[in-house]
From TrEMBL:
Residues 34-265 form the ABC transporter domain. GO terms for biological process: quaternary ammonium group transport. The keyword Transport applies. One of its GO terms (molecular function) is ATP binding. Keywords: ATP-binding, Cell membrane, Membrane, Nucleotide-binding, Transport. SMART domains: AAA. This is ABC transporter related protein. Transmembrane segments: none annotated. Belongs to the ABC transporter superfamily. It comes from the Bacteria. InterPro entries: AAA+_ATPase, ABC_transporter-like_ATP-bd, ABC_transporter-like_CS, ABC_transporter_ATP-bind, P-loop_NTPase. It comes from Methylobacillus flagellatus (strain ATCC 51484 / DSM 6875 / VKM B-1610 / KT).
Amino acid sequence: MSQHIQQDSLPSYLDQQPAVKSRFERLKQREVVLEVRGLHKIYEGSKGKTLALKDVSFKTHRREFVCVIGPSGCGKSTLIRILAGLESYSSGQVLVDGKPVNGPGRDRGMVFQGYTLFPWRTVKSNVMFGLEMNNVSRSEAAREVDMWLELVGLEKFADAYPHELSGGMKQRVAIARALVNQPRILLMDEPFGALDAQTRARMQSHLIDIWRNIDITILFITHDLDEAIHLADRILVLKAHPGEVQELIEVPVPRPRSAEQFNSPEFIATKARLEALIHPPQSEAEQLVHPHMIRLVNVNDNVE
Ligand SMILES: Nc1ncnc2c1ncn2[C@@H]1O[C@H](COP(=O)(O)OP(=O)(O)O)[C@@H](O)[C@H]1O
Ligand SMILES: [Mg+2]
């Protein structure tokens, strides 16, 4: 499909091909792994209170891939840290398999944007760390670690140290470390945000492969619209300040996903919808208050 699709000839992002529609029907019949109900988060700092999340509610089904997007500062990291049990919340409920979340647990694995491997430990020993914390025997742990390193394609680097790895490889170790405890949910906060475009694209396909091969539900935060559409079954769109759910969009792009789909009508229609939600057109009043461009130096010429 050509890139120059006219806006008025676009399908609606709500239109779904029969295969996509029936996939969503099946997905919604699966058990609910994560349920967030009326979540509020207020930070109390020296400069007063910040309402970071307001009445956030949603459900995620087993083996679903949900992306969360929203403008910077809208509370995405706050939300995922609450789900991981690393941050308290002011009111509401977070349930994993119907049980309230009170602190971190083996049922949730987390991958952060920054590289968080222990530099003094090898790849293998970094992945082993989670198991050591959970008192798994050494021989069982070694078997588990080998299996997960193979899954992320790093078995040859088991004895390397983090400084010997590229950014993409470090994040693959971080994914293996998060998965080794066989969590129900993998929580990822802009995990590919620091990678170059090519590595990022490779990591996206790699993550989709992992997700297809194991029983895992993924909640993935990004501010990259293309990344969200390419990866997600559904996209939770948050509003700026305070973070409030605007819409939970069912991505109409069929699976399996491929790079060619970035130009498909479904993809473009979904992106247009996300752009409208995240960067709403400015009102006339807002446009009027734009500062005039000031010419600091009278160079007496015009740049072509
Ligand atoms: N520890 C904190 N103390 C006070 N305010 C915070 C803290 N962490 C985040 N905030 C505020 O909460 C809001 C949401 O932040 P965050 O969750 O990091 O947003 P995002 O990840 O979407 O960029 C922001 O206004 C931020 O300044
Ligand atoms: Mg953040």
